[in-house]
Structure formats: C-alpha cells, structure tokens
Amino acid sequence: MSSRDRVLGRVRRALADVTPDDRPYEEAVRRDYLREHGGPTARRTVELLAENLADYRAIVHRSGASELPSLIARLLAARDAGPVVVPSGLDEGWLAAADVTRIPDRAESTPADLDRAGSVVTACAVAIAETGTIVLDGSPDQGRRRISLVPDHHICVVRVPDQVVSSVPQALERLDPARPLTWISGPSATSDIELDRVEGVHGPRTLEVILLG
User: Record's InterPro entries (predicted)?
Assistant: First the structure.
C-alpha cells in the first residue's frame, strides 16, 4: 500500500459518518453572514480605508485628477530612485509631468531588468476599507504581479469612491478568481520571534497610495 492509499483511506474513514449532501456547493455552504458592518456611507468607507492604510504604514495622499500628474512627479523625484516600471495600460497622463526613465512591463523582462527600477506606478482593482488592503488583478493598468514585488517603491492609485468597498466579501464579488490576484496591506514586512519588524522582505519597502477623486 502506498502513502497515497494510506492517506485516502484515513480520509474515507473520517468521512464515513458524514451524511452525503448532493446539493451544489453554492447551496450546501451557508453564506448568510454579514457582508459589511453598519452600512457606512461612501465617504466614511473611504476615510476608514485611509486610516487603515496608514495603520499599516502605507503613506496616503489625496488628489484630484488635474493634480495627479504633478503629485506623482513629486513623489518620484523625492525618491530619486532611478527608472520606473510602467504597466502597458497605465493612463499616459499620470506620468506626463514626471522626468523619469520608464521600464515597460514586458513578458521578456528579466529579474535584472526589474531590479534596475527603483519605483513602480500602478492602478488597482479594488481597495478594502476594513482591512486597509489594495488588490491588484493583473489588468493592463496594473501589470504583471512581479512588477509590484521587485521595485522598492510602489505608488498605487485608487479611484475613490468607485474602487473602494467596505469588506472582504464585497471585494470578492468584484474580483475574478481566475486572475493573478495580489493582496497588499502596507509595505512588505515581517517580524522575528522578538517582534523586530523588517520591511522590504518580499516586496516594496515603501507603499504610497493615492486616493484619486
């Protein structure tokens, strides 16, 4: 008997007294939990997102459409971090005021190519207020997952209030599970057993989120 057979045998014995349920999964699993807490207004939801982003040590900015190019230019100039990775579908106007070398997001780009970049600018798919999380789904204005993980500085633009939801269940309704989803809550960080925090471990050391609206 193989190890696989032993494991499957134990699973069958463990399920022997479970009543069969032939209903579709969507019907068999109860989903009557709360989808959000308290029914906040759109304005309060955006404020909660800003608070929780800051709590995770993301740097939060607010901007109107006309000020966005100059804001992004200032943030990139302040970093003085060299080339910037740009997704293929990013709004051209967002970087119109930035005097930077651009590295396009291409499938053939090597890790060394991306390592040359100090920053990346993306849009997002959705932002979750209750958890302070932004989600990228690989759309053209967000690019491949790797471009948000290699550069040390990530500027992410969130359109408010359209892209902001209150809770995780509401976010899941907007997302396609077949897409490469990247969930980001603050800059990349980890802690050792003594709770010494280290940032930039497996992603950007600095996350700047622009609430555009």
Answer: FTHF_cligase-like_sf (IPR024185), LUD_dom (IPR003741), NagB/RpiA_transferase-like (IPR037171)
For CA atoms 134, 138, 143, 145, the dihedral sign is: positive
Residue bearing tokens 């902001």: 164
* Predicted TM-score (pTM) of this structure: 0.83
pLDDT at 189: 75
Residue 87 and residue 105 in contact, taking contact as beta carbons nearer than 8 Å: yes
Report DSSP state, residue 148: G
Note whether 143 and 85 are within 8 A (CB): yes
Which one, of 96, 126, 77, 135, lies nearest residue 86 by Cα? 96
Answer for the pair 94, 86: CB distance below 8 angstroms, yes or no: no
As a whole number, mean pLDDT of residues 126-140 equals 97
How far is the CA of 149 from the CAs of 7, 83, 123, 126, in angstroms? 37, 15, 15, 18
Nearest to 132 by CA among 85, 171, 80, 100: 171
Which amino acid is it at 128? Answer: I
State the chain's mean pLDDT as an integer.
91
Select from 3.40.50.10420, 3.40.50.300, 1.10.10.200, 3.40.50.970 the CATH code of 41-212: 3.40.50.10420
